[in-house]
Amino acid sequence: MPYTLLFLIGCIGFSISCIGLNIPYIQQLDWSTVSWISLHRMDVFSYAAVALSYLGGLPAMLLICGIWCLQQAYVKKYANIVLISVSLLGASAIGWILKYYIHRPRPETVYQMVQTYGASFPSAHSIYAAVLASLMIFIFFRHTHAKFFIFLACLWCLSMGFSRVYVGAHFPTDVIAGWSIGFIWVSLICRLLLKHMLSMNKLFLDKHLNEVE
Questions:
Q1: What is the pLDDT of residues 82-98, one digit of tens each?
Q2: Model pLDDT, residue 206
Q3: Could you tell me which residues come within 8 angstroms of residue 163 by beta carbon, excluding any fewer than 6 positions away?
């Protein structure tokens, strides 16, 4: 399972995005990117980006993950329900706490195509996208069609991040921070959950052996 790799990617990305908040050159690059994209929008991409803004918000993510949890309950994979629930709610809480304390202003309203809430850093949509993508990778890692699910997860994550800059709701460093938080949090939760499950299995086996003896 790629716990360590995803965790390291998250740590590197979050470090770069945080450092970028204090480097004028990177801040200027953020503004230039948002400005350039706003001047080169196309209708087909604009419709898709706005649709992703609604589809990738917290209400939609709660609905999607809720349906996923019901499906996992149907197949009796209760550990996955805990993983999905704790991952989404925990990462969401971390993101909004950071928004409150860092309080980075969003790009100017002239660039924005959708209504926005809260501060800019980090991108909450990118957090949710990274959480969902990471969960798909971890849960379907050993599936017969794992490559397809991994491709779908990466496509979803990248598309959501790009869309947030495209609609003028976030800077690129906001998106990188959002992705990173999602990667780090899900990696930690998945690792801790696996460790707990292994401990429970060992306890069960020890108890069973003692009863046999």
A1: 889 999 999 999 999 99
A2: 42
A3: 48, 49, 52, 53, 56, 125
